[in-house]
Amino acid sequence: MPSRPRPPKPLGTITRGTTNPNRLRRMDRWLAGPQGHRLRRAADPLVVDLGYGAAPVTAVELFTRLRALRDDVEVVGIEIDPARVAAAEPLARPGLCFRQGGFELPLDGRRPVVVRAFNVLRQYDEDEYAAYWDEVRARLAPGGMFIDGTCDEIGRRATWATLDREGPVSLSISLRFGAFGLPSDVAERLPKALIHRNVPSERVHAYLRALDKAWLDAAALASFGNRQRWMATCAAMKADGWPLLDGPSRWRLGEVTVAWDAVRPG
């Protein structure tokens, strides 16, 4: 009897796997909020948590939060380390499962409407990320998006790049009030595509410097609280011509999203 062909080797390498409960709550809130229309309209509401880490807590949280949006959402946690997949299996339930794999997305031909990879690509070399971006984008459903993000250990400072099937669309920054002195403090958490580009000749450097200036210019509002100061900062950025893609309802959460062209690597 001929032997069965071996499944393809997962695409990628094992990451450190550090995770904490609620670490990705800021991104989940954005996904269920202004991006919720993607799941509501999807013919197949399939979501992937790619590289969920040593514990599956972020995949479980994502499933719980998105089920409140649409009760037939399916979340697949994908990890390259088989031991991590085995450890997650007891938490599987209808609509939530775990599979071994990498950027090739072992989904039996299905196309996800959302793929989230947080604190994954930052552990790769700078010359690798673009190929992995292309690998995932090619597997998205129509209207789908790939989120490549980074955050600190407890989720107080986060950034993420959003891509669709055509390419990068936006950069989001989300900060807990009181967890930063200047907006540019988030620079160490930029996605791999931008983290080494925060130098004077690059667009993302200009964007962060502009945020810092607007924040300092709004210092008179500090007595009314950091939320009011941040909202004034974002309003000033928009008035100065930065292509912000959101408005006050997101700014009040410590969040701001800008079109990718404003920060893309030179």
- Which architecture does the CATH hierarchy give at level 2? 3-Layer(aba) Sandwich
**Unreliable stretches covering 5 or more consecutive residues:** 1-5
Q: Which strands sit side by side, in order, in the main sheet?
A: 3-2-1-4-5-6-7-8
Structural class computed from helices and strand pairing:
alpha/beta
Global shape: globular
Total domains:
1
Q: Alpha-carbon distance between the termini? A: 56 Å
Fourth-level CATH superfamily: Vaccinia Virus protein VP39
Mean pLDDT: 94
Description:
The structure is a single chain. The chain is α/β, with parallel strands linked by helices and 266 residues long. The chain has one domain: Rossmann fold (3-Layer(aba) Sandwich). Helices cover 29% and strands 18% of the residues. β4, α5 and β5 form a beta-alpha-beta unit. α1 runs parallel beside α3 and α7 (203-217) packs across α8.
Briefly say what this structure is.
By secondary structure, this protein is an alpha/beta fold. It has helices at 25-32, 36-41, 57-67, 82-88, 129-137, 192-195, 203-217, 226-239, 248-251, and strands at residues 46-50, 74-79, 96-100, 114-118, 145-151, 157-163, 168-175, 255-259.
Any key phrases for this structure?
266 residues, alpha/beta, disordered N terminus, Rossmann fold, eight-stranded mixed β-sheet, globular
Helices and strands in order:
Elements: H1 25-32, H2 36-41, E1 46-50, H3 57-67, E2 74-79, H4 82-88, E3 96-100, E4 114-118, H5 129-137, E5 145-151, E6 157-163, E7 168-175, H6 192-195, H7 203-217, H8 226-239, H9 248-251, E8 255-259
Parallel strand pairs: 1-2, 1-4, 2-3, 4-5
Antiparallel strand pairs: 5-6, 6-7, 7-8
